[in-house]
């Protein structure tokens, strides 16, 4: 796939490496496949980040619910030794950015303050023993909250750092275009993990958003000013090559994949959870969106958000409660509060289950595409399967 034709790859065309040709000056793009490994807490660890980067994709390291800045910086640092290209390990200023992103949960970043983001932009995630200029990650990813206050900070402190913003609605996509972000990730309801409760499937979201963004550009042009078309990526339920082709046909340059990378050998999730994913069929009925786990964990996710998980005893119980008590009619916080007050038994189950990683109780976040994942593969094999290349 060529960077001149693919808007996502073009965004990262400044990340280059030495080509195979004899000519010393021949440089080739480092990111060659428009596939982003989503930042997934507990799953997108250093091994998966490195495996995706080593194979020409673009991984995003999850910053998640951080509290300890130094611990996160240490983890980010552990990616570099796993990256294969020797050029990345030379102590010179040839390579300006490290070939991965860091992904923030924006409302959490607001609570913790911007120091970690600043540290990463300063290159604190690079090898601390380098004499040359410390390198920041090539991109910062924001999801779930207002990223706008951080754009200025990134652009002032480390110009050239790309910004990826994951959004769930057309309105948010239009706002991100106005902010001139580099990549908009359209997250459909199929997605594993958190997202907005009431949101379109990708089949509708992509063409609607792409058209709206184009209309906006035309409108501005008629007024004599210029708006850019950001690169568009699709996120949600994408597991196989036909889906990857379909989102591209609808106007996306590539895909963000979470669930599909979870059962790979390199992901940092536990093997019994990987097996549970591979055994789960039909993701449309075997996954469900819920807020119950955040309520039980005591993580105060803002109201519009919930998350998609593989159904388990707890989500079934939640649904029974809703049905039996007629709470389906009383949607929203009130209903969840009632359930939570009523659930002392469940809370005890929860503490035990969290310790044992009992997937009948604790959440196994996954998208609707989980049903199509049946075989464990390496991250590289999974990527090649998606883009239709034989391994
Ligand atoms: C286990 C898991 C953890 C996730 N954690 C995050 C996160 O920390 N930050 C974030 O922006 N998105 C997170 N996501 C959502 C992804 O960004 C992405 O939208 C989603 O994985 C795409 O759908 P898919 O899982 O069906 O491929 C997570 C998804 C999963 C499955």
UniProtKB/TrEMBL annotation:
Arranged from A to Z, the UniProt key words for this protein are:
Flavoprotein, FMN, Oxidoreductase
Q: Which PANTHER family has this protein been placed in?
A: 2-NITROPROPANE DIOXYGENASE, 2-NITROPROPANE DIOXYGENASE FAMILY, PUTATIVE (AFU_ORTHOLOGUE AFUA_2G09850)-RELATED
Query: GO: which molecular function terms?
Result: nitronate monooxygenase activity
User: Which CDD domains does the record cross-reference, listed alphabetically?
Assistant: NPD_like
Domain of life here?
Eukaryota
Q: Report the source organism.
A: Entomortierella chlamydospora
Q: State the protein's name.
A: 2-nitropropane dioxygenase
Q: Transmembrane residues, as ranges?
A: none
Among InterPro entries, the record links this protein to: Aldolase_TIM, NMO
């Amino acid at each position: 796939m060529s960077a001149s034709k693919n808007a996502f790859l073009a965004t990262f065309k400044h990340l280059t490496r030495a080509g195979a040709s004899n000519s010393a000056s021949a440089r080739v793009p480092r990111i060659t496949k428009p596939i982003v490994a989503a930042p997934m807490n507990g799953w997108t660890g250093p091994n998966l980040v490195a495996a995706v980067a080593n194979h020409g994709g673009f991984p995003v390291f999850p910053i998640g619910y951080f509290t300890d800045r130094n611990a996160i910086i240490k983890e980010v640092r552990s990616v570099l030794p796993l990256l294969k290209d020797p050029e990345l390990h030379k102590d010179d200023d040839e390579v300006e950015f490290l070939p991965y992103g860091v992904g923030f949960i924006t409302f959490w970043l607001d609570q913790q303050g911007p120091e970690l983001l600043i540290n990463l932009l300063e290159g604190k995630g690079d090898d601390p023993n380098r004499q040359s200029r410390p390198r920041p990650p090539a991109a910062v990813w924001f999801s779930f909250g207002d990223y706008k206050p951080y754009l200025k900070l990134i652009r002032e402190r480390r110009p050239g750092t790309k910004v990826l913003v994951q959004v769930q609605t057309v309105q948010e996509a239009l706002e991100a275009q106005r902010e001139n972000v580099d990549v908009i990730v359209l997250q459909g309801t199929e997605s594993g993990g958190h997202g907005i409760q009431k949101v379109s499937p990708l089949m509708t979201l992509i063409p609607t958003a792409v058209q709206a963004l184009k209309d906006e550009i035309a409108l501005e042009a008629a007024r004599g000013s210029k708006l850019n078309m950001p690169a568009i990526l699709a996120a949600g339920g994408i597991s196989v090559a036909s889906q990857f082709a379909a989102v591209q046909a609808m106007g996306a340059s590539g895909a963000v994949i979470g669930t599909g990378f979870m059962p790979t050998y390199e992901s940092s999730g536990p093997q019994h959870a990987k097996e549970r994913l591979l055994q789960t069929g039909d993701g449309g009925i075997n996954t469900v969106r819920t807020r119950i786990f955040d309520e039980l964990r005591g993580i105060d996710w803002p109201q519009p958000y919930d998350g998609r998980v593989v159904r388990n005893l707890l989500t079934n119980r939640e649904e029974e409660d809703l049905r039996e008590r007629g709470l389906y009619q009383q949607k929203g916080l009130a209903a969840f509060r009632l359930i939570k007050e009523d659930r002392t038994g469940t809370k005890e189950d929860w503490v035990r289950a969290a310790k044992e990683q009992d997937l009948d109780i604790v959440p196994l976040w996954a998208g609707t595409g989980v049903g199509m994942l049946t075989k464990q593969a390496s991250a590289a094999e999974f990527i090649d399967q998606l883009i239709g290349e034989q391994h």
